[in-house]
Write a structure and sequence with these properties.
The structure is a single chain. With 346 residues, the protein is of the alpha+beta class. Helix content is 20%, strand content 28%. The chain has helices at 71-82, 100-105, 129-141, 172-185, 202-208, 226-242, and strands at 15-16, 24-34, 42-53, 58-62, 90-95, 147-150, 158-160, 163-166, 190-192, 212-217, 261-263, 270-272, 277-281, 288-289, 294-299, 309-312, 317-323, 327-328, 333-340. The strands form two sheets. The chain has a 15-stranded mixed β-sheet that branches. A hairpin with a 7-residue loop joins strand 1 (15-16) and strand 2 (24-34). The longest helix is centred in the C-terminal third of the chain and has 17 residues, at 226-242.
Length: 346
């Protein structure tokens, strides 16, 4: 598979205040002009940091794509404060709070335009705030990057087993690059997630641009998991060592994660709520389950005469994620099953 030469950036008004070619350490902003009622000629300013030292690969790292996922922003802020540019070879571009309006509100979606940033790629440089953010990433940051690390968790609505995520591609060489980088992260689990074919995410767009791409799902429930944060902190540095931006460990086997790869096996891997009510799961995360077994039940607490509605698994596998709030509405994702990856590993 060949990748097209990146087109000229689409015309837009967003701009960055950092010099991506300057050596050393700097911080600044991506300015997204914004004209709400309270500020006719204002801007939404997305914090950005750059560390550069000589020649070498460029890694773009983002957190806060969803504003209720906190491990990524914490990890990237710490990384910038702790790293000395003299100790890297190449360039790091760090954006800890990519969806800044959502991060400040601790919401999955932007309070400015109501959009899920991770369903707007490749964006629109003349569109809403979320669309302009994703357009700037696609038009200006992906073309100067070799690798992309996008740090997610389950947010407020899901609790997910901490894991590193492979965004699939049909190109064998690219798939191998992605899987090896994700395995280098060293998470307890490695999972291939296609999002049922969704192509409007940051990682899908990065793969389309040819970047070595690593995602994560670091627990969730809208809180900060100490265990997941430790995995995230260590994993980011492991990938940067794998890319040779940071000095590799002298001892072999720096990443301690399992090399077993799982996947979400399409629609059968999801258990959705068919009706509104209160969902009661029947098993903890990590449980081995079988298709047809009872998965949980929805209680109709406003109708004491009605018995609960039982839900069943549609797939054998491991219980990988479950809904965090008890209240569900029709179509809410209640449970997710992961199974052994049956695709290409190398």
């Amino acid at each position: 598979m060949s990748y097209e030469t990146p087109p000229e950036p689409r015309q837009g008004s967003a701009f960055a205040t950092v010099d991506f070619e300057r050596e050393g350490k700097q911080t600044g902003f991506i300015h997204i002009p914004h004209s709400p009622h309270s500020d006719a000629w204002g801007a939404t300013r997305i914090p950005i940091a750059v560390l550069k030292n000589g020649d070498g690969p460029t890694a773009l790292l983002t957190g806060g794509n969803h504003g209720d996922e906190h491990e990524g922003p914490i990890t990237l802020g710490e990384l910038f404060r702790e790293l000395d540019p003299r100790h890297i070879s190449g360039r790091l571009i760090l954006i800890p709070a990519l969806n800044l309006p959502a991060v400040r509100a601790a919401h999955r979606t932007s309070p400015v335009d109501g959009l899920n940033l991770n369903r707007t790629y490749p964006g629109d440089p003349q569109g809403t705030i979320s669309q302009q953010i994703s357009a700037f990433v696609c038009d200006h940051l992906y073309p100067i990057s070799d690798a992309f690390i996008d740090l997610h968790s389950g947010g407020s609505s899901l609790d997910i087993l901490p894991s590193a995520i492979v965004e699939p591609t049909t190109d064998p060489d690219h798939q191998h690059r992605n899987i090896e980088a994700v395995l280098a992260f060293g998470a307890p689990m490695t999972v291939v997630i296609s999002n049922l074919g969704e192509q409007r995410s940051s990682t899908a767009a990065a793969v389309k641009a040819g970047l070595t791409t690593v995602g994560t799902e670091m627990a969730g429930t809208g809180t900060v998991s100490m265990d997941a944060l430790h995995i995230c902190r260590t994993g980011v540095r492991n990938v940067l060592k794998h890319l040779k931006i940071l000095e590799p460990d002298e001892r072999p086997g720096g990443a301690s994660g399992a090399r077993k790869v799982l996947e979400i096996p399409g629609a059968k891997g999801y258990v959705f709520a068919p009706e509104g009510g209160v969902f009661e799961p029947f098993a903890p995360l990590g449980t081995e389950v079988r298709a047809g077994e009872p998965a949980g039940q929805i209680h109709f607490v406003d109708n004491p005469e009605r018995p609960p509605l039982q839900l069943r698994y549609g797939q054998d596998g491991i219980l990988y994620a479950k809904r965090h709030p008890g209240r569900v509405e029709p179509g809410n994702c209640c449970l997710v099953i992961a199974t052994p990856f049956e695709g290409m590993l190398s």
